[in-house]
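User: Here's a chain of 411 residues. Predict its fold as tokens.
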Amino acid sequence: MRVVLGVGGGIAAYKVASLLRLFTEAGHDVTVIPTDAATRFVGTATWEALSGNPVSNSVWDDVDRVNHVRLGHEADLIMVAPATADVLARAAAGLADDLLTGTLLMARGPVFMAPAMHTEMWQHAATRANVETLRSRGVTVMDPASGRLTGADSGPGRLPEPADIFDAALAAVARATHGGDGALRGKRVTISAGGTREPLDPVRFLGNRSSGKQGMALAEAALAEGAEVTLVLAHAEVPAPRGCEVVRVETALELRDAVLEALPGTDVLIMAAAVADFRPAELMDTKIKKTDDGADPVITLVRNPDVLREAVLARQGMVEEGRSEPLVIAGFAAETGDATADPLTHARAKLERKGCDFLVLNVVGTGLVFGQDTNEVLILDPAGGEPVPAGGSKRAVADAVVAHVATLLPA
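Assistant: Prediction complete.
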């Protein structure tokens, strides 16, 4: 990804060196454009050494390349950190009096700004109006952190930590790249993903074939719709998308605890993890070994908790306690069918038992769903209507599921 990193003239510019390092270490090509004031805090030699690219803040350098046009057109992301009150004002007014503001006017991709300034400046009506103007034009303006400022003062206006800016900027790129009309903007979405592992001994475990790909696609789709996403992640073969808060778990019990802990602050819960139905009754302290007498070991299994059902019951308790915002809960069912019923019949019965708002049916089997890049599902409504099919890439399925979630939320 080609990134233009604008640096405003504030004391927080020193923290942006760490932000630049995060981008370059992730393999992105970064061109730094500091303002004149920014170079009084951090010199151009630092930016050139960390980015590996030449640095200029003048429209009069490399005139033959028309840098402000070229950089604005080529950038996959233009971001400014710290975005000072002055930079915000000039960007909102559409000024183009240096290389940075000229490049901002030429932007074709997403623009992201991380403000930092004194509290009174951030709270001033002029700054607030400038921020709203930029946001109305599609610019992502991150709220500053609250904490120690220059001198002894403290309050809102502190530059967020570089890792937080990095994650939020990549989430903004994901929203711009993958589309979405912000149907989940302002909503908190918790998604469970991956396959749980139930240990037998220090070496072995009971597991399943889940790759976590569908859960990751759901997280990407929710991010693209503007949601804040918490990913409760068991074992997965693919990395979590940037922009998520990731809670790592291994067992069904750990997943249950993480989901229930996240529930009170959640607007949407999507249970896409492949949670083991059973676990060994006893965890051996040492590796189970073959015995000389040839006897086969006997492993007793016990039921794991029904996490989806517990979440539904917890929601009922929250409603009784006066929770004002509704909570949408969606489940996934992996079914094979058997001698008693087909997969759809099993899924309908599961939806009735669980009590969630809808259920996504995966028909699984050898070479189906697990580990694949494509999927075919049916979205089941508890009212008993016709199932809604969705298929194609796992991202396409995720988009369909997230779109269905949006229909269940208040406008």
